[in-house]
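Notebook, p. 212. Picked up where the previous page left off. The plan for this session was modest: take the two constructs that came back from the sequencing core last week, fold each one, and keep the raw output in the notebook itself so nobody has to go hunting through shared drives later. Recording the first one now, exactly as returned: residue sequence, then the structure token string.
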Amino acid sequence: DVLTMVYHDMCSVMVGNSLYWFLIGNFCGILEFNLDRQSLSVIHVPVDVDVNTCSITVIRAEGGGLGFLFLSDYCVQAWKWKTDCDGVASWVLERTVALDKLLSMNSEEGSQSPRILGFAEDNNVVLLWTFIGVFKVQFESLQFKKLLESYRFYCWFHYYPFEGVYTADGGIGGGPYGAKALHNM
């Protein structure tokens, strides 16, 4: 028996007034903590997830709302939690992307399948490890950028997508320790 627990390799995502985490173990699902009601609930996902052979992360879906990305081999599925006119909520497959074609790589050369490293929720950008490098991918526009060269084998590094704010009047964070002070450190 395997306990169900929060998948510690992925950060939480805030959508609306709720925080979401991915659950793995006896079953896979998404744990929701509603900040207004101070309540927990679990949403089951429509795919079987084995974190040893595939990769998954909770995201803010295209147009807002809850979503998740499911990556198996070189295929990414973007799912969205939608409510129909009768108030019944269910998962809808929004998009499927062939990563080997998008990133112009030969999947037969790779010794390991790509992995999701993290999700930057402010810009809806996913960090992906591939055998040719680490990429940031924006799945709504299908724009991508190679950030780093990669080792031929996946290493279990932890990435935390950090997004900062720059204000024109005072630099980063607006205080006396703005961009110029950070540059001099």
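Okay, moving on. Second construct, recorded in the same format:
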Amino acid sequence: MAAARPSLGRVLPGSSILFLCDMQEKFRHKIAYFPQIVSVAARMLRVARLLEVPVMLTEQYPQGLGPTVPELGAEGLQPLSKTCFSMVPALRRELDSRPQLQSVLLCGIEAQACILNTTLDLLDRGLQVHVVVDACSSRSQVDRLVALARMRQSGAFLSTSEGLILQLVGDAANPQFKEIQKLIKEPAPDSGLLGLFQGQNPLLH
């Protein structure tokens, strides 16, 4: 298998991992578009399982912020507890054990906090980061917009869930394509992105 060229941001199942960040009960009524974000992240998780892409799940201070919401469908995953505003310290051992890893697909909250800092830490390790924009949000849409722009400036790729899913599948002849096609038959739910990207937005140019 040819190695993905970092400058292109190609995503291959054998060299990718899915990170699910802090989608917990106490955030349910505070994060903009929380149900939609979790729905898209759940779609990414189902695809990762079908394609045997490894998945890592974290929870920020679960004693105070509660467990991962059940609608994510993360049964069988062991969440790693953290207090740091980055997933990387909690997952360092997992990252170190995967020398073939090239790409991290990143979903969760909050964009300006744990998602941004996780992105910077992963980039610092020489990994490609693909921020799933329709599976990341914040309490403030300004924070969300500026965080997406900041991550892009630093070298992360901004992608939609469907774009990444189809990259991972690669070919309609993939044995899992029919099952995955059922998952993406309906478009991902609206999470307010059009309002962030429309017009001449200088932050995303």
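Notes on construct two before I forget. The longest helix spans residues 34-50.
Flagging for discussion at group meeting.
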